[in-house]
Amino acid sequence: MLRKIKEKIKKIAAAGKKRPAKVKSSVRSVIKAPSLRRKAKPSARKAPEEALQKETVMGVHEMAVERSKFSHPETFKPRKQMPQELPGGYGQDKIVLQVRDPWWLHCFWEVAGDTWNNLINRLKELFFSAKRVLRVYDVSNINFNGKNAHRYFDVEVAQEASSWYLDTGNPGRSWVVDYGLKLPNGEFITIVRSNVVSTPIDGPSWMTDEEWMVPEEMFGKLYGMGFGLGQATSMGKGWQDRFKKALFSGILSSPGITSAGSPVRKKPKERGFWLVVDCELIVYGATEPDADVSVQGRKIKLRPDGTFTMRYSLPDGKQVIPVKAVSADKIEERIITPIVGRETKISNTVDQELAAQFYKNE
Amino acid sequence: MNKGYLCLVLHSHLPFVRHPEHENFLEEDWLYEAMTETYIPLLWVYEKLVEDGIDFRVTMSLTPTLISMLTDPLLQERYSRHINKLIELSHKEIERTTWQPDFQKLAIMYLNHFNKARDTFEKHNRNLVSAFKILQDLGKLEIITCGATHGYFPLMEPHRESVRAQIQVAANHYEKHLGRRPRGIWLPECGFMPGHDELLKEAGIKYFFTDSHGVLHGTPRPKYGVFAPVYCRNSGVACFGRDLESSKQVWSSIEGYPGDYNYREFYRDIGFDLEFDYIKPYIHPDGVRINTGIKYYRITGPGGEKQPYVPEWAREQAASHAGNFLFNRQRQVEFLYDFMHKKPLIVSPYDAELYGHWWFEGPQWLDFLIRKTACDQDTVRMITPSEYLEENRRNQVITPSMSSWGYKGYSEMWLQGSNDWIYRHLHAAADRMTELARSHPEGTNGIVKRALNQALRELLLAQSSDWAFILGTGTHTSYAVRRTKDHLLRFNRLYEEIKSHSIDGEWLSDIESKDNLFPEIDYRVHQ
Questions:
Q1: Residues of B in contact with A34 (CB under 8 A)
Q2: Main-chain phi, psi angles of A345, to 5 degrees
């Protein structure tokens, strides 16, 4: 999470640099705008450190490529008349339970105003001392009737909450969630009950098929190969746990925890200051509209009024640029030859005193 | 005699982005860029292989939204405008780089590329889908479908009606454009939930793909891992698991080919590099700098300093990487063949847009790989899933595990703090759509039928996984927010108007003309 925020700040900072100094010189050479994108968008393939950390986590590269399809800067401007907002609720009593991964569930709920009123009328002042609770039932392999769950656990939620992530700690099970009130005496009153969901297991199944029997050793090897860990995968006890660690690392912790708790030493801050300068040369002129004009021996096209403009990227060195015009009747010829040179000097200085202060504050 | 099979799968998808109400709409460029850099260059590869008499097999999804855009006259006209501007810019670039031969050579390369792209586009009467269909009809390409709008199926639960609608609309749309029912499907984001296979069966779909753990964590244990498909219990639909070893070689930012220093750098584009007044006519009219597609540098190294791109070096590297990929598949297949006593199947799926758009040399690599596979060896044979199932009818029956190919392998990419708010509304709309479908049986006609069909279109569009994905990445989210809200608000208004018998015909016509995909849609599939 921290890293994400840092990246975001970096991006915002980079975006702020989008107006580099633009200098027009009187000899009509234009100092080119630098590569604005250079800092603004570190590519996935250019961040080896970060990539190394994430390398083994499933789906990282796929996400990077998919993201590149949508690589555009922010341009959408709100219309004059913004669309109306989506409704805050749909006036119903409902809770929907979703599977995020083998361990985590997500649910969102809504309770209609009438339902709350009925509860208040029924419970009187008890209502106001009741806690809002999600009761999570393990209903694996049963037809749940509200009373026959294998077990359940309660999660107290904030009064204003209307969605929640639940850590079941137990993959490969089926779950139902009730949203309700827990009274001071421990009594639980269900307000809405969710759909049933089943989470996937987080490793290979223990079940084998008689007809398609596969020895443990062979399966372990195929398993490792399927995940791209090569043929040399060493087997033995605990191979499944090792795979789990290698492939789904980080999955057990919610996104908020992973990087904030990272023991990696803080890197000194990288200063992002930069400057790019380039030059272009504009050669322009005019002659009779029907004349033949060439620049450095290459014929160019005139505008209908006989004017012309050529624009060149100007590298270091000397450019001799003969511009030749021949009258339509071939009688007259004029040549004008600008000679232009470019020499680039680079100087980088750092104010040591300020720099020392900067790094101290870091 | 071959010892195993390679099944290359390219998943081509873009969300439906079409804004007739704006003369220029930035996000429409997603399509134009992918056409110029991926879809058309892939066609060149395929068409040349056919011309040269090289046999090959590639499985390729064309999502219904992509097909809808590629066949839409307005977007075709706008692509024509787009490519013509690029050609104009390339001419200017050739002149501008007169004194820099390294760059001028590249400007000429781009001019040729864009000219050729325009020719291909026009040659196929602007309809790239028909160009791909020709290759399918020749037996070289197997085109598969996808969810109608690329909705992420596992998070549609418990509203299985929505999953059904995504599949049914897609299959019907496929049939309309490709002349037969789809045999296979690429589940959006490879997202699978046990039970959805039965909905595929209803639509006559014979196979789908999951990520490795979809099969490897299936129950009971799959005897051959991901190196043979399995049939799903109950439905009998075949499931092909991804091989991660071959995937990593291409996808990975570390070991992967696309990061080679000789390849073209994606992030240095003249849209950002050049002086503002000069480039202004070719970026967004508001002056926002965007990618033009003209990029002059090679990756060079890990630092920010970049050197000019040298096409010959890159081409050499692509050939060498193709050879390396094939060599590794041969070793993999030989090992597995001895180990399994059966010909293994290596399933290697990629986003199609990786080829050409992200990895400029990707189409070249594919071309080399196919030619080498066809001409240089006998160990590995390219195959489509349909052919494999035809030749190998007996496969193990298991229940694959819930899975996706997204970050961390499950649903977190599309269900996290930044995007979980959408599900409350999507599920409410799905509930309402089912209610509408059930309360308007066959025989509903006229404006009510039109409104019902449009309601389903709006719901499907709101369900595109792309919006949740963009929200999940946390950057440039306003368009994704807008699309999610717009479609849901249109849906809600249609619902209210249908229920209260007060359909606003003028407004209905307006949104029909904007969200105009799936003209053949039938709202009754959502139940």
A1: 273
A2: -115, 145
- CATH numeric code, A278-342: 2.60.40.10
Give A99-109 pLDDT, tens digit per residue: 999 999 999 99
Which of A26-40, B140-154, B496-510 has the lowest average pLDDT?
A26-40
Higher model confidence: residue B485 or residue B286?
A: B485
- Chain A residues with CB under 8 Å of B469 CB are 66
Q: Are B346 and B227 in contact (CB under 8 A)?
A: yes
Cβ(A171)–Cβ(A201) under 8 Å? yes
311-330 of B, contacting A, C-beta below 8 A: none
Is B96 close to A311, i.e. CB distance below 8 A? yes
Give the pTM: 0.88
pLDDT at residue A245, rounded to an integer:
62
On whether any CB of chain B is under 8 Å from the CB of A48, the answer is yes
- Strands B230-232 and B397-398, how do they pair? parallel
Nearest to A171 by CA among B103, B492, B403: B403
Q: Which two tokens stand for residue A41?
A: 């968008």
Q: Which of A38, A198, A209 sits opposite B304 (nearest CB)?
A: A38
Whether CATH 2.60.40.10 fits A94-198: yes
Instruction: Count interface pairs A-B at CB distance under 8 A.
Output: 309
What confidence score (pLDDT) does residue A36 get? 39
Q: Where in chain A do CATH 2.60.40.10 domains reside?
A: 94-198, 278-342
| Domains parsed from chain B with CATH numbers | 4-16+28-71+128-264+324-407 (3.20.110.10), 73-126+266-308 (no CATH), 416-525 (1.20.1430.10)
| Chain B 46-105, residues with CB within 8 Å of chain A CB atoms | 92, 95-100, 103
Tell me the pLDDT tens digit for each residue of A292-347: 999 999 999 999 999 999 999 999 999 999 999 999 999 999 999 999 999 999 99
- At B192 the three-state DSSP class reads strand
